[in-house]
Amino acid sequence: MLSKASIVILAACIVGFLAVKTIVTVIYRLYFHPLAKVPGPKIAAATRGYEFWYQGLQHTRFPAKIKELHNQYGPIIRISPEEISLNDSEFNIEYFMHDKKLKKDPWYYYFGFRNALFVLTNKKKHKERQTNLADSFRGSYWRASYPMMTREIQTLVGKFEKSAEEKEELNLSKAFRKTGNEVLRNFLLGEHYDGPNSASRDFATQADTLFHPLFRAASWTRHFPFLILLQNLIPGRVFVAIVPMMKYNREIKHMIRSLIFYHDANGRPEYSHALLYKIVDHDPSYRDDKCRAAIEEFMELLWGGREVLGHSLSNICFHLMVNPEVMDKLYVALKASDLNLSTASYVQLQTIPYLWAVCKEGIRLQRGGDFRIPRVNKDDVQYKGFLIPAETPVSMSPNFFHQDESIFFEATKFKPDRWLSGDVERLERFWNPFGNGSRSCGGRPMAYEIVFRGVANVFRNYSMVLSNCDPEYCSNEGMLEVFPQSTTTGLRVIVTKRGD
Asked: What is the pLDDT of residues 211-223, one digit of tens each?
């Protein structure tokens, strides 16, 4: 039995050891680490706590801070003890988009999911699943979904019609995300699904208050991975009370497992035109560990997809409202088209140049491209006199391209005409909202389809103005972010029907 004095001495030794270890580690990182000569704030080089302060405690503000640091220190900066950020469009377009030696940084992509495409670090497995997913967005399987997408677009248009008739404001953020939710759930589960836990299909109502904190929680779990394990130690009802979103998480798990077990036992049901069955039939490993991979893939595709669609449409509408002359010009272009806009596909709508330009420009300016993309190279890399050692995470952001003044003149301004003249081929080269190559977003055909069709059908028939804020307030309050703050009410507008 240790005496009180012994316990005090032992505690003092432990504290002393940890203090010395911390001091030695910081000195090494600041002065002797291979990245010691890379510019950047010393505190970022010393500890990942610098990132956590901005990303975990300041509502995901680290991307904005990285931009500030690049303005202060230059194109290459050290943003953590082990990671650097590069803001050099010409270098990045080759390094990140075409170098097949790169792999994902496991630390950055850890937030509870292990098997979904977005976080999958196994390149071979990722390529297999990505190829299968991409096949679902082309050919006869994809074309069979056109009627469903047409119906959902018309449902969206109906909300604008009702708002205009009743002279009531419309919450664009919710309306667009609801459309994304409906399109994705139908594509994933089948349009007529009414099987086990069918009530769990409608996530849109809860998503704004429950799902967004889950994504923001990734900023914590990267730094404190034990939080993922903690949920297994807390009784179910208690954990749901603490994290309400987990109620729906568990319902989804039960639903997906039930669907797959029924499918394996009885064959495909009537609502068999569903991506869920296609991916699990293609890759049996989706069934492993109680269908964990299938569940994660479903969540990723549904939640990520609805956010991309809702966020893109909201941003395009915002910029059109801030620039009413562009909105009017778009209306004239749509009115002059011979296409039946209610059924026209993305491919057909591309024949309307000004619509194409408006959508491209709106997507370029969206906030979703702020997220960084860390990649690890197995070889050393030289950059302007700096040696980047092998296995060093190097990150960039798609918005580094999109806000580069040397490529997009007056990059912060909404100027669709830039896509109709000049060196458009160069603009296209650096327009990368969904990535390129094998790591690009497999669902981008759906994003293009819904965004182009949504914009065409809405602005052919309606005009709108902001009702709850001026443009600067909307932007500063996070209404245009991918995962808005919980206090944000959404982008609300007054709709007016166009006269023919």
From this structure: 566 666 777 888 8
